[in-house]
Amino acid sequence: MDIGFIGLGEMGAAIVGNLLEAGHTVRVWNRTAAKAQALARQGARVVATPAEAFSGDAAISMLADDAALREVIDAALLERAPRGLVHVNMATISVALAQTLAQEHAAHGIQYVAAPVLGRPDAAQAAKLTIMAAGASEAIDRVQPLFDVIGQKTWRVGAEPQHANVMKLAANFMLASAVESLGEAAALLGGYGVAMRDFLDVVTGGPFPGPVYAGYGGMIAEGRYEPALFKARLGLKDVRLALAAADAVSTPLPVASVLRDSLLEAVANGDGERDFAVLGKVAARRAGRQG
Amino acid sequence: MDIGFIGLGEMGAAIVGNLLEAGHTVRVWNRTAAKAQALARQGARVVATPAEAFSGDAAISMLADDAALREVIDAALLERAPRGLVHVNMATISVALAQTLAQEHAAHGIQYVAAPVLGRPDAAQAAKLTIMAAGASEAIDRVQPLFDVIGQKTWRVGAEPQHANVMKLAANFMLASAVESLGEAAALLGGYGVAMRDFLDVVTGGPFPGPVYAGYGGMIAEGRYEPALFKARLGLKDVRLALAAADAVSTPLPVASVLRDSLLEAVANGDGERDFAVLGKVAARRAGRQG
Amino acid sequence: MDIGFIGLGEMGAAIVGNLLEAGHTVRVWNRTAAKAQALARQGARVVATPAEAFSGDAAISMLADDAALREVIDAALLERAPRGLVHVNMATISVALAQTLAQEHAAHGIQYVAAPVLGRPDAAQAAKLTIMAAGASEAIDRVQPLFDVIGQKTWRVGAEPQHANVMKLAANFMLASAVESLGEAAALLGGYGVAMRDFLDVVTGGPFPGPVYAGYGGMIAEGRYEPALFKARLGLKDVRLALAAADAVSTPLPVASVLRDSLLEAVANGDGERDFAVLGKVAARRAGRQG
Amino acid sequence: MDIGFIGLGEMGAAIVGNLLEAGHTVRVWNRTAAKAQALARQGARVVATPAEAFSGDAAISMLADDAALREVIDAALLERAPRGLVHVNMATISVALAQTLAQEHAAHGIQYVAAPVLGRPDAAQAAKLTIMAAGASEAIDRVQPLFDVIGQKTWRVGAEPQHANVMKLAANFMLASAVESLGEAAALLGGYGVAMRDFLDVVTGGPFPGPVYAGYGGMIAEGRYEPALFKARLGLKDVRLALAAADAVSTPLPVASVLRDSLLEAVANGDGERDFAVLGKVAARRAGRQG
To answer: Which CATH architecture has domain C166-286?
Structure first.
């Protein structure tokens, strides 16, 4: 397929790599051009404007946040885009913007699929992302071959694009909640001199299998928060989005409020660029200990 | 082996059943005798006093809470117990009482093993409990054959009995945290008309495998909180114990504070006897919806 | 003085009344013209555009929120405004917008004074507002005669306009915190059948004198949340602004997080238009009782 | 009157001083006798056992906590006490113990008045305590002359002694809530470089008059937490009692949960013996700043 790709951060670059490897034509655009050059060596065609990327069979966007997306995806871009284009937005954005984008695309006759992903850059590299796709069935059908190349599983979660965004935010909220609870559990254990590593063996071998508890728990057990696979600062961004989405439908999320405060504390104390697992350090500091 | 067993609630009765089936001799005692009679039909010998159960090779206790335990396990009982006896306490008790018991047993020359378990009555029935055992190695060695009959895995977590209790409380705190986060996620999704069931498929198929998320999440998705496999009231009891243990070592656990408040709200609104998953209903009510 | 006034809600209308009574010339503008007509009968001159109000010696704005303000106060308006004009913004707005406004006014050579107030419409009516004014001294000097007419006390809180807005948000956060604590105290007392009224007599007669505890406490004691002197929905708006301001400087405010959740719960359960004191009802509901 | 007094901490000693000055006969007992000797110089008669103090017209107890009280006030003491004695318990104790004491005194035919106080040692010294008295009217009537000597105001809050204790805990909860909100407000202001002192002038001059906001706020503004007029450790004790009282009637108190966590953090970080206002330091630390 002939694909445009906008946004070449760690996630975007890894996804483009897999698309190229699968034989697709990919026109790439990034605000800072250097990142695009690296992909050019893998066969990507670097274009000079978002509009050039917003053409062909499909355009995929993977921008950092609402503001970055709004700088690029605007009425002018949609106006110029070819009618048959399917725009797949894979970024984690606010539900409010997701709703706006759905309306704007509809008004311009552009197919719009929200397809946020679960998985960090390492999973993107390995083509093991989990994709939550929402939008018109026929539009998803058309880009499914792309999803098959970049993810291990695509979940179709309905016709309303923003539903996929709500799911993404809820999933990241659950992730953050698990990490915070690991951090608090470690603080409790630490108060009695019980080894977090032993505890982790028990719970990951029993009620809490899977990579989340083992991975973040392991970092907390070791007090090692670098290299950051998922930065605390970005975790905070997502918790804020979950809270904003919940606020818009008058839904209190008390655990999310705690998460926000803990992550703010991490950032305030200089750990925003460390891994999300640094919540374990926050919990330990509250107890007057090192974490 | 010749075993005494004290406390025949759902968990205790299931464990005794497995011990009998494996050919052990089990003398059983319960405050209300009726429960013991049922086990007599399976071969248990009903005794009239705790002291009669507190003899033989090992005595196992599985009482409801600190108060129930203190009514039965006192200085007089320990004084009369045979020196070689190993007392295995499987109940979830406070860390404070665990520390006291360790001292008292040592003072009376009775071997003491703390062996709290992960798993609900259905897991006990199926001999699939996870056992966290702490105490003197030789004492655990002696009762390991019993653990092999009633659990699927025994984790040895050190020589200090109370360490096993701290782990148990930390594990149940993590469980409660997962259930609350499922409930809040469901409330968020509900605000946008996204199906919890669909969300659950995504997260249990990806970051959150295992029985906890699937099981409690499924109950929340269905809004079905009965039959109660683990009652909200008992979940509250365990969160209280985790908070008390953390308080004793000056460790704030902000998520545990939220859990306590949510579980109190469940109890206050008449759902204490429903399943722990009723936290989903609490989260929905806060948002003005049914859960 | 010759004053323009933009925004004729309850607060604005009351302030204009006092300005007129003191003999000032007031040109008024409101998005919905009906409210202006009522003031015309008191002597106000109704103008058709914000620009007509944004002239003379001073222009005062008292709009509902950031969005309402941004619809009216824009570059075009500032461009056309007479150089000597002092713009006094009395509304409770975000700190972020306050900072932007300060810069924009400076760029256009318009004097800008932030002057948010403490006090509800009844205090505005009685000219008993407390005014927190920040901006250039000479600008405040020029409008001080107006402040003297509409308030009982002006606090000058520095040269940076946004400092006054931060103070306003901090003050309203403290107010909300006091109301929530009254609500929770009432729930605790209610659990034991102790009369909130008796408790209130004790604390307002001792550690907590002043109108806040007596006023909101009295509404909670009576379970009477109407008429709403300060609506829960507006209280929520201000708590959100405090949280956003704190977030921007990486400052966790755990009590504010609780307040937000409680107010969201009030709104979700249909009490957004009731008085802020309805936090007492939220606290009672959580305990399974009526409040 | 002929009075026995048990418990000579800072509060007790100050109260005894005022009773002596008013001409009453006071037999004093304290666990550590040294404190009693100091009062002997003011005219108190030092007795060797609690029983000797538990006689005469009235016995007043002012012990540190539930445990200290239970060591002294037991069945044997009540059995030996003269029938006409009125026991006035001024300590802040748990509601659970308050209920037990009421029953035990009734069973032994001893009049029991719960009379917890508002006010710190300096207020006790100045005979400016606020007294909340509950119990049989005639019993209170008999000790009212004593209350008049040691306090500035006695509130009669019903016939059930524990109601006074619930009120005391609710009042201290409100106090803690006010201090925490001052601390968080200071952290917010600090993030923008706004002076807490200026803010305090505004709010204490307006919505929040009285000694609580001015006093604790002033300490926070100065970052001065010594000398401790009311220690953080004791504040934590009272918050725990409020939470326990609320738990017993299934009442969530989310702000109290935050207070507990903040005070635990203070204690964990070595500030338990500093003034309660040290909550301001906790809030600042969370924001990565000094407080």
So the answer is: Orthogonal Bundle (1.10)
